[in-house]
Inverse folding.
């Protein structure tokens, strides 16, 4: 029975050595994988060593008492000043473990967590934004448009869209070069941001195509925004390259109606209006409302 008690110490030692060895092997093979877990491993290593020291001490002591080792060891290790040694080691290890956990691991774990949250935010922004203009890209615009469409369906609040296309942009690139073309794209994105309210959603949805989604705006209000947009582009264009670079935009405007199947139908209707604006001369705004009014006037 006593021998069994002595052997238990050695069993505990072998378990701890196995745990410690496995952790060390994992760490040596994948050191970069661990992050702040390294500090937790250090804590575990210290605790393991403390356990091994204590159990080796008492393993040898009781082993000698029950005939596993020479009896002289009992006298040596049984000396009171030595018996206290494993306990002192315990206290020191406990203090180091607490210091590591509270003052090193906890702050760096918090730091690592907020860093990874920032990385995720950065990646999300990168996936949603167009690199050249900083406006939303088409994919993200459609996600937001879908949400606005759902709001429109539920509360039947006004919702309008502007489809904006730069006129003869290919010629601009051909005449002035791609860099000036890019400059014009950035200028249009600035106009997008200036012309819109905070709750409006602006995006670059194609090469030289932009969209502005206007929640809480009916077609008449959207037409006002569109006209202002055209004017701002003209004004910008007259200020650059001594007025040589003539940049204008055509804009198609449409508003959501209950009979539409989804935001795609709204975009399609605005695309139709944009097509009309292009056909009748560019540098202008067109909407189905205007078209209906024109037809009405012609019929009178
Ligand atoms: P329209 O008035 O009928 O719209 O004529 P357009 O020339 O504007 O239209 P088209 O579709 O023929 O040409 C679009 C041009 O936009 C062609 C392409 O070179 C240019 N473009 C697309 N993306 C970029 C870009 O990122 N930078 C620059 N500089 N040009 C671009
Ligand atoms: Mg186009
Ligand atoms: Mg164009």
């Amino acid at each position: 029975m006593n021998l069994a008690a002595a052997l238990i110490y050695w069993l505990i030692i072998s378990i701890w050595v196995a745990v410690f060895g496995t952790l060390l092997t994992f760490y040596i093979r994948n050191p970069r994988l661990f992050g702040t877990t390294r500090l937790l491993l250090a804590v575990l290593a210290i605790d393991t060593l403390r356990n091994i020291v204590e159990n080796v001490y008492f393993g040898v002591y009781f082993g000698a008492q029950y005939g596993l080792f020479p009896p002289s060891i009992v006298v040596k290790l049984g000396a009171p000043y030595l018996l206290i040694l494993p306990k002192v080691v315990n206290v020191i290890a406990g203090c180091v473990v607490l210091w590591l956990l509270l003052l090193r691991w906890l702050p760096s774990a918090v730091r690592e967590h907020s860093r990874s949250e920032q990385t995720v935010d950065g990646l999300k922004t990168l996936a949603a934004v167009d690199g050249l203009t900083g406006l939303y890209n088409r994919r993200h615009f459609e996600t937001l448009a879908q949400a606005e469409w759902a709001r429109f369906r539920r509360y039947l609040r006004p919702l309008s869209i502007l489809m904006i296309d730069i006129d003869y942009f290919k010629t601009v690139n051909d005449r002035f070069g791609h860099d000036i073309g890019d400059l014009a794209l950035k200028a249009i994105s600035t106009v997008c941001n200036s012309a819109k309210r905070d709750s409006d959603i602006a995006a670059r949805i194609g090469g030289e195509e932009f969209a502005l989604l206007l929640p809480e705006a009916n077609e008449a209000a959207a037409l006002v925004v569109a006209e202002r947009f055209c004017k701002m582009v003209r004004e910008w264009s007259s200020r650059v390259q001594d007025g040589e670079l003539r940049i204008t935009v055509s804009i198609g405007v449409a508003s959501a109606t209950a009979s539409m199947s989804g935001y795609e139908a709204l975009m399609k209707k605005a695309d139709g209006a944009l097509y009309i604006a292009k056909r009748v001369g560019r540098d202008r705004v067109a909407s189905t409302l205007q078209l209906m009014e024109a037809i009405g006037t012609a019929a009178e």
Q: What stands out?
A: The chain has two domains: 2-125, 138-299.
